[in-house]
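Model it.
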Amino acid sequence: MENKILIETSARHVHLTEEHIAILFGEGHTLTKKKDLSQPGQFACEERVTVVGPKNSLQKVSILGPARKASQVEVSLTDARTLGIDAPVRESGDIAGSGACKLIGPCGEVELAEGVIAAKRHIHFTPEDAEAFGVADKDVVSVKIDSADRSLIFGDVVVRVSPKFAAAMHIDTDESNALHASGVVYGEIVK
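Modeled.
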């Protein structure tokens, strides 16, 4: 669809380091791919963990692979309130000074002193896509999304450009529910 960007809902999930995979699932364990995700090289795993906060826990939280340089937990702000964690809205990877939690796997536990965030809504573009849409890496745009019941415009959407990406906008479950999104959803950048 010309001038339209695919909107995908990113549910709560965890990214793990190799060290934390070994602690949670056993020495030498490798993540088991369940399905590929829209971003090249990214996949949902069969493995799950429990995320524990001061007030509550979330069971069977998905892990996304491959392993990362730093472990990170991405939750909605509703999830963060449920857990009792102050999760700042940040871009993925920006975890300095973010929320703390405990992760529990079948073989062990990991205390994260930081790493819990609510992911800032964002668009993944290849350089060619960015040029076609008239945007550049780190631009902040608004995206209009029409739905049957709750059309809206999301502001503060950060553009991320890399030749390793596939074009898609990611929103969390709170944002998807506000939109009442269902099925395949597209939006357009508004200037």
